[in-house]
Every structure is written in structure tokens, then in C-alpha cells.
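Retry 2 of 3 after timeout on previous attempt. Resubmitting C-alpha cells to design endpoint.
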């Protein structure tokens, strides 16, 4: 399986030069319902199954505080929507061998999850039902408090919060690496200001062997292909990637101009 990370010139340079992936704090992403959408689905399930729904919902609102950072990939190899949203209208798409990048990340940190994002009202329904069942077996609200206070070590919550999204984003066909960090303030490596002026917090994951998982690079539309290809070749050669052929770097087929 091939997966694609759409990024800017700054982004591809940073990934290849540092052999590092930046996992973004989900609260800083472009989906305003990120995290909240999964919580809303849990509340829907509570309303359907629990006789103590009001008490559970209040406790859920108090303790739902996921601390998750993600690295996003797409199944779409040359998507106009992705170029517009994540490549600054041009940029690059780094093609990864899905099996290789998964193995490299898991060898570095076995607690990082790698899953396909699910969209819509029924997304991750089984996991949500399992959580609601846990809540319903407690006679007092302190039961759910104990569950949520164990958030830092409970991958179940990371799964719900990081891999459940609104159906409006379904065309992104997204896969994610997600890390549940124990202390978001100390674990986040840095804050940066993007071209749009937005702040973004991220967690840096240094990966030996990362470059071996890259199987190709797509040059985004609207660029000088000759000059951009030369920049890309020099970037790869500088980092020891000598065994590349002409097909390794290819130009987008999308006829888009970022005017």
C-alpha cells in the first residue's frame, strides 16, 4: 500500500534533512471538530444505552481531554483537494511504502498507533459501544472518572479521538500515526507559525531508516518542473539517496495554477 504525505517545500526539506516526522497536536489542525466529533459520538451512544445519561455526559465533558499528536497520510496520490489544503497550492507529496513506514515507526515507539481514519456518524462504532459499556457497568460516576484519569496510558481513547472524523473530510482517505502523550506541554517539541499565520504545536519523532520507506516524490502542480526536480534531486543526494531513477520523482498531472 502506498500512502502520501502532502507538504510544503519547507516540510519536505525538514523531513528528509532531519529524518524526522512531526506529529501535530490535534487541537491545531484544520478540522474544527477534531476531538469533539468523537466525544459527540460517545454522547450519542450514551443517550441510546444508558439510563444515567445526564450524569455520564457531565462526567464525560469534564474528563474528555485527549492529548494526541498525529502524522497524516492519504491514500490519494495526486489530489487537487490535497494540493490546495496541505501543499500550499503546490508543494510536494512524499510517497511512502505503508508497510515499511509502519514497521519503522513501531520499532521506534510501539505505543504509536497506525490506523485508517473512519468518518461519519457510525465511525468506530464498536470502540465507542465498548467504552459506553464500561461506563454503564459502574454504579457510581466515579467509575468513569477512574477510566478517564487513566487516559495517558489508555490507547483506547487515542483510537477514538484520533481516528474518528466528520464525514466532510472523507475524501481525504486518511491514515494516521497517533501518539498519546502523557504531558502535552512538555512532550510537544515546538510551536511554529505557518505561512497562514496560524500556530501549530508538534511532537518530533526521529526515525533511523525513515528515508528507506520513501518510494517516490510527486512535484505539485503550478511549479517550474525542471527547477523543482533539480532541487529535489539535490536534496535526496545530499542525504545519501543515490539509487533513484527518473520515475522516482514525477510531476503532478493536475492542471492547477495557484493564482
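Retry 2 succeeded. Sequence:
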Amino acid at each position: 500500500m502506498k500512502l502520501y504525505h502532502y507538504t510544503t517545500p519547507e516540510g519536505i526539506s525538514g523531513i528528509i534533512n532531519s529524518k524526522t516526522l512531526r506529529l501535530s497536536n490535534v487541537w491545531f489542525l484544520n478540522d474544527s471538530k477534531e476531538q469533539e466529533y468523537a466525544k459527540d459520538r460517545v454522547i450519542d451512544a450514551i443517550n441510546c444505552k444508558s439510563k444515567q445519561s445526564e450524569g455520564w455526559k457531565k462526567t464525560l465533558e469534564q474528563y474528555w481531554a485527549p492529548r494526541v499528536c498525529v502524522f497524516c497520510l492519504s491514500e490519494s496520490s495526486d489530489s487537487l483537494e490535497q494540493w490546495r489544503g496541505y501543499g500550499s497550492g503546490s508543494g510536494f507529496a512524499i510517497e511512502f511504502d505503508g508497510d515499511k513506514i509502519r514497521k519503522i515507526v513501531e520499532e521506534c515507539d510501539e505505543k504509536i498507533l497506525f490506523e485508517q481514519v473512519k468518518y461519519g456518524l457510525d465511525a468506530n462504532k464498536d470502540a465507542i459501544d465498548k467504552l459506553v459499556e464500561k461506563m454503564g457497568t459502574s454504579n457510581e460516576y466515579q467509575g468513569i472518572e477512574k477510566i478517564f484519569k487513566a487516559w495517558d496510558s489508555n490507547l483506547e481513547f487515542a483510537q477514538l479521538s484520533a481516528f474518528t472524523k466528520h464525514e466532510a473530510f472523507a475524501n481525504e482517505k486518511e491514515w494516521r500515526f497517533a501518539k498519546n502523550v502523557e504531558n502535552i506541554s512538555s512532550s510537544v517539541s515546538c510551536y511554529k507559525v505557518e505561512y497562514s499565520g496560524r500556530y501549530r504545536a508538534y511532537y518530533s519523532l526521529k526515525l533511523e531508516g525513515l528515508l528507506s520507506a520513501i518510494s517516490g516524490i510527486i512535484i505539485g502542480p503550478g511549479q517550474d518542473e525542471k527547477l523543482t526536480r533539480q532541487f529535489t534531486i539535490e536534496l535526496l543526494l545530499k542525504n545519501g539517496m543515490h539509487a533513484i531513477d527518473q520515475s522516482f520523482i514525477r510531476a503532478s498531472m493536475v492542471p492547477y495554477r495557484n493564482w
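Attempt log closed. The chain has a mean pLDDT of 83.
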